[in-house]
Please model this.
Amino acid sequence: MQVAITSNAHEGSESIILSSIKVHLEGNLRQLELRHQTDNPPSDSDSKSQIVSLTVREASIGSLSGTADLTLYPGQTKVYSFPVIFREAGPVNVFNIDLSIDTNTFELQYNTSGNTDVTSVWWLELRDGLRKKRLTREDEVTLNVLPKPPKMEIRLPNLQEQYYVDERITLDVELSNMEDEDTEITLEARFKTRSRHAPQIDWGSETLPPRPATLTLAPEIEASPVRSPRHDVGKIEKGASTHVPMTFQGTWEASSHILEIKVLYHTVTDPETPISKTFSTPFTFDTPFEADYSFLPRIHPAPWPSFFSADNIDQPVDHDEQIELVEKEAKGLTHRWHLGTEIKSVADEDLIIHGVEVEQHTVTGGLICSQVERLRSEEETTIGPRSSHTRGFLLDLQKHDLDDRRSATLDLNLVLQWRRRTGTDPENTSHTTTTLSIPRLMVPNLEPRVLCSASKPSPPDSAPPRLITLVYTFENPSQHFLTFELTMDTSEDFAFSGPKTRSLNVLPVSRREVKFVVLPMGEAEELRPQLRVVDRYFNKVLKVLGGEGCRVEKGGSWCVSIDKVGIDDADK
Model:
């Protein structure tokens, strides 16, 4: 910065000794003051114009001060040149300059505005004297201080192309100090998002806080950045690099965010000048899996209670004992259902599934889900991109009361334990738990039904290789005596052994079986047997349902795959 003062006094006049020069500024630096001080008595030899180089020091916050010889001789121009370090970025404007003269006989203060019509110049000291260089700017008394350009490099060397919900993620933040000296660094990170629950960032490998119970999206609110606590990295030497682990838990619903990492630092020799650099990258959490479900009836192996057995007759008990019995034991019939799941990977890489479980969420209609059994218990399964994997579960459902014929519902969740083949954590040991909500399952009310099961004859060595046994199970959960008229339609695809037409009586709350032995004809790969069942009492045609060993298609129709008898779709 330069302050130039020219004396217009006539030659031979006395010199002028200024007591002080005050430069008033608008901006982060408010005042600059130069006070008169000299160790040499004034002489005529000092009348030559000159540039005086001096240093200033901080007098208070936003104020600088220094000392110099403020003696001006007639016709002399003195240029006071000194360095000024602006600590903050922004405009700095010279709006006033005060010149003070303090003698034994009088005091004089001269005030001049910085916005004068005099052209601003920059003074240069050459061999033949001072020379002026004009400053060609629109606003000659205003300086726009730009932030110090940061020389800190920020990288995420282990950033993956795709991230998934519920995944625990560790990012390695690499900082490279390209400044000319050592620096002190502080890190700050945040997710800019429209979600009310953004990922919470931890610096290091500390245990993450539990995630919220629900994730509520709010598209109507403005983007709300969620900041993490600042992390003091410490000192980084010139030209050195350091790595800082940053850990967070992915959201549990698919969402998009902006990850912003900000580095705040200063050089060791100039701690008053803050420098910052910001690194941003889009961050999206995708759902790694999708699933399709099937809910099919099965035959429970346990026998039904006999409606005519004396053991099942309720004995008279008092009211308190009856309440206790109802709370302890369910008396309804137990039905078995098959929950088939086809898990589809929507990831772009191989994922390893460690386990699949079904958990209960809500059960309505007086129903008890008394057992959940996995049909397969593989420890690890690798599922490739855009491929699928099937798992099956057996659910035993029972009503509290035998007379309760209401329809019921099941709200279940499919819980998957999985990890990447190439993990996001250095040791590649973290497992991720992803929960998929299964659409509500409707359990129909208790009505008579017919289920068909297909199996191979036993022992198979004594039978033709393609021989199939069809077992039709008739269930009568009502308290009515039912009679069914059965008619097996003939087909060119198979021959069967068993009654073509017959009547079947089924007692209340009981089951009966009708067996057919089927021999496929020709090269048919699938059989579609048609057994017509008519309830004589209600004059109602019952639809035959596909059970074990049958392949159920969309729409409820079913068939028997000859070469895959006994294998459910969910267990292939």
Remarks:
- The two ends are 83 Å apart (CA to CA).
- The chain has one helix and 45 strands.
